[in-house]
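Quick illustration, no need to memorize.
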Amino acid sequence: MYEISGLFDLAQTDHAQLFEGCRYPWEVLARLAEYCRTQVRPTPSHRATPGVHVGDQVQIGEGTVLEPGVMIVGPAIIGKNCILRHNAYLRENCVIGDGCVIGNSCEVKNSLLFNGAQVPHFNYVGDCVMGHKAHLGAGAALSNLKLDGSNVWVEGENGTPMDTGLRKFGALLGDHTDIGCNAVLNPGSIIGRNSMVYPNLSWRGYLPPNMIAKHKAKPEVVVMRPRDY
């Protein structure tokens, strides 16, 4: 159920070689640092942009726009025709595809974004893979570290726990997934292709493709009492 081809269309990234030899898709996360270090071709043209900080080991594709306040620490490889909005913060080992959006006050680190992925408003993306046109609603966070700091485990194919070997592992979002506003995906969450997580939901574990994770609880509605002024 964790097949790479089942989650991601590798034709929608220029970095498909990252997956070569991987049995499980989360193995890519441990490869990002070396990949960025060896594959980055620094682009100096944006370093003089007012109000923007671009590290020495940062590659930026043609047509990509950096708004004032953007900070890219690097190493990072950023594709063509992306938009990095005001106060976007890219830390180490980010591989961003073509046509992606990193929005206001969003933080991304050690992550791979396929073409068209969107991280538009007040999001945290740590140690994640976001598939083609995966989208985060405002305030959605992909948490990458367990409270006790131990390795992240996932459910194995036979239902038994499986140690990923990763202390930091956020989420895998399959192609065309949508995560609602203020939802939290706990470490090791895997969301299947075309699936959706409703707003304000705290999700943990595997959501199969073409599914919706909803709240069960209904809001309580009561009669308004007169107020004393």
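The mean pLDDT is 94.
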